[in-house]
């Protein structure tokens, strides 16, 4: 069964610290993987996208990695800020033939001053 | 401005009173989808559509209906709402064609309470 699992479920860090969120997937076939940021009560917004051939992608203080062999992705946040407090959702998309989005349940990050 | 617009943003209703949540996108996207989000369960897909007049069930379609008569609109219909449909609902759309990576663009959400 196609699944996306994220860990940890929640995380609390101090402002300025780094953190890494994990995403493991069993989706096959695979087209791409995106990390979305969702502020409380708002719609998710895309942060990064990884395709099969990409290992690393950065967007400011956010760096995503992908290991297609082990089917693992991570999102690393550097020098966290209070505004990073949000849920981070890993979403895997299947190729055009099926065109499915498989969602993880998210990691809730809280950054404290 | 490219956007997905949902209405209403907030709604309190009573059991059995039919309601419709509208969703409109201005990006000429083929794919549109509805999700509900409940604490601890993440986003769960209700229905999706890959083009006009083409709709299909997601993971939790019971109690919901949709229609796709125009490319830009994808309303969610609750014929007889029940308290277990109290949730935060999101509409999303994406461009499927032309090698696009299919980024989902989400609306701002509609918080529904059924008493």
Question: SSE layout and pairings?
Answer:
The complex is a heterodimer of chains A (113) and B (115).
Chain A: E1 4-7, E2 10-14, E3 19-25, E4 32-38, E5 45-51, E6 56-59, E7 62-67, E8 72-77, E9 86-93, E10 101-103, E11 107-112
Parallel strand pairs in A: 2-11
Antiparallel strand pairs in A: 1-3, 3-8, 4-5, 4-9, 6-7, 7-8, 9-10, 9-11
Chain B: E1 4-7, E2 10-13, E3 19-25, E4 31-38, E5 42-51, E6 54-57, E7 65-66, E8 76-78, E9 87-94, E10 105-106, E11 110-114
Parallel strand pairs in B: 2-11
Antiparallel strand pairs in B: 1-3, 3-8, 4-5, 4-9, 5-6, 7-8, 9-10, 9-11
Shape of chain B: globular
From N to C, what is the helix and strand string of chain B? EEEEEEEEEEE
Total helices of chain A: the number is 0
The average pLDDT of chain A is 93
Q: Structural class of chain B, please?
A: mainly beta
Could you say which overall geometry of chain A the principal axes of the C-alpha atoms support? globular
Q: What percent of residues of chain A adopt helix (DSSP H or I)?
A: under 10%
- Count of separate DSSP helical elements of chain B: 0
The major beta sheet of chain B can be summarized as: 7 strands, mixed
Poorly predicted regions of chain A: none
Number of E strands of chain A:
11
Mean pLDDT of chain B: 94
Tell me the Rg of chain A in angstroms: 14 Å
**End-to-end C-alpha gap of chain A:** 41 Å
Distance between the termini of chain B: 36 Å
């Amino acid at each position: 069964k196609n699944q996306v699992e994220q860990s940890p479920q929640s995380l609390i860090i101090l402002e300025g610290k780094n953190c890494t969120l994990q995403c493991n997937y069993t989706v096959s076939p695979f087209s791409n993987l995106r990390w979305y940021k969702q502020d409380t009560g708002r719609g998710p917004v895309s942060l990064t996208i990884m395709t099969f051939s990409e290992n690393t992608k950065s967007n400011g203080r956010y760096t995503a990695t992908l290991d297609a062999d082990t089917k693992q992705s991570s999102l690393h946040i550097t020098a966290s800020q209070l505004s990073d407090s949000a849920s981070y959702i890993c979403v895997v998309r299947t190729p055009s033939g099926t065109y499915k989005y498989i969602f993880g349940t998210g990691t809730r990050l809280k950054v404290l001053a | 401005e490219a956007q997905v617009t949902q209405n209403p943003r907030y709604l309190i209703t009573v059991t059995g009173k039919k309601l419709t949540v509208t969703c409109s996108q201005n990006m000429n996207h083929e794919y549109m989808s509805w999700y509900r989000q409940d604490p601890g369960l993440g986003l769960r897909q209700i229905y999706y559509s890959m083009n006009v007049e083409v709709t299909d069930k997601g993971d939790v379609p019971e109690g919901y209906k949709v229609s796709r008569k125009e490319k830009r609109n994808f309303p969610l219909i609750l014929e007889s709402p029940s308290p277990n449909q109290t949730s935060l609902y999101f509409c999303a759309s994406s461009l499927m064609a032309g090698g696009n990576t299919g980024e989902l663009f989400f609306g701002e959400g509609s918080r529904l309470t059924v008493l």
